[in-house]
Amino acid sequence: MRDFILSTLRLLLPAAWILINGCATLPDVSQVIDQAALEQKPPQIASGKGLLSPQKSKAILDRLGRFVDPTDLLERHSAILETITDSPLTKGNKVTLLADGQATYQAMFKAIQGARDHINLESYTFEDDATGQKFAALLLRKRAEGVRVHLVYDSVGSINTPAFFFQHLRDAGIQTVGFNPLNPLGGRADGGLRHRDHRKVLIVDGKLAIIGGVNISSVYSSSPRAEEKGGKPPIHWRDTDIQIEGPSVAELQKLFLDTWSRQKGPALSGCDFFPRLRDQGSALVRVVGSTPGESNRTTFIVYVSAISFARNSIHLTNSYFIPDAQIEQALMEAARRGVDVKIILPGVTDSKLVLYAQRYHYAKLLKAGVKLYEHGDSLLHAKTAVLDGVWSTVGSTNLDFLSLLDNDEVNAIILSREFAAQMEGMFARDLAESKPILWEAWQRRALLPRFGEWFVHLFFRWM
Fold first, then answer.
1. 340 given a catalytic annotation
2. What is the pLDDT of residues 11-39, one digit of tens each?
3. In terms of CATH, what superfamily is 94-262?
4. Is the CB of residue 241 less than 8 Å from the CB of residue 211?
5. Active site residue 367
6. Is 110 a catalytic residue?
7. pTM above 0.90, yes or no
8. Superfamily of domain 4-91+287-462
9. What is the dihedral sign for C-alpha 340, 344, 347, 353?
10. Around 414, how many Cα atoms within 13 Å sit in the side-chain half-sphere?
11. 205 is catalytic
């Protein structure tokens, strides 16, 4: 979700953006791949009882690979992630796909209602509307029952939410932190206007987590074909989350507590943040978080390397698609080597400028054989991918510079044939509601939109 005020600032102050962050760059993924090949770290999988031996870890990946078409993703991509992140690949996870806000909210409400020890909630946007008030009432009730509640909201993403809304939560004992305030007090200098917390994470009792693209806002509460009293359908926001149960929840907990610490939140005590986690399912999951200032941008490397190693199919859905040269090149090379590359992008958006910037890239991708689609009446807000029928990711990361370079983001990587099949089914349903962008028709477009795309692209780095 792009806040109107932030979008306006981006347009009015492009020179300021250069001064603020003009030197920041994305890593050269080819060098990361070469370094991983030199180090040759063996795959290592963690369980609820600790790390498995390299031999057992390799055997698990080999067994998974025997049931899918040949792919380099399981071994080569996993080896790269071993070199760039301390977050392990964990076995024994149950992953439930949550398509759209209604399914996500239903799962979140159920999880919160069942909380016994603590609730950790992190959201870019937490609005003071019907949905936000429902969440607030439930959190207040759980706090009254003795459950400890900790909330992180982004100060720009929630800029339209009045201060008294969060103060009411604090007064009732809910510990609340605004991420990188625009006018920070108390010496908090971790920020800058561009550094936002774009993560959406709910963790309950350290045993269950829900992550994805859904914020706390009523825009996600409508169904695709709902109608208001006047007969005019509201804009439906099409999004995706997942619910995770099992050992990988501990990795999400670590990220939440790290954010809390970096933002100098109140001291946390009296909670069992890391209970013993038993196997709940069969999915392998790796949690990947990125924070500005690191030597590499992990979510960016995840996307580029996964696309580079895919051999059969790349089915990508993304809400803000302004790819850098490496992602664009990786997609084109994949299509040229015969991979089925399909990308579903928004046809309806909350930012016309972003739509122009997105469409600037269509010509090169289409000429290389990438198949592009724009989603129909819904506002597409999902950030997901499924590759080679076995590798999937769901999270908060958009394929634009703001997300890849400047924001705190989190994605889960899921290695599972069964979950990938569910992702393919969801992708097929979205595809049926999308319009293909055909090269012949794209060449015949009018001059004015072409100029708009070119002009907006001049400022794409700061959007």
1. no
2. 433 334 444 445 568 899 999 988 888 88
3. Endonuclease Chain A (3.30.870.10)
4. yes
5. no
6. no
7. yes
8. Endonuclease Chain A (3.30.870.10)
9. negative
10. 34
11. yes
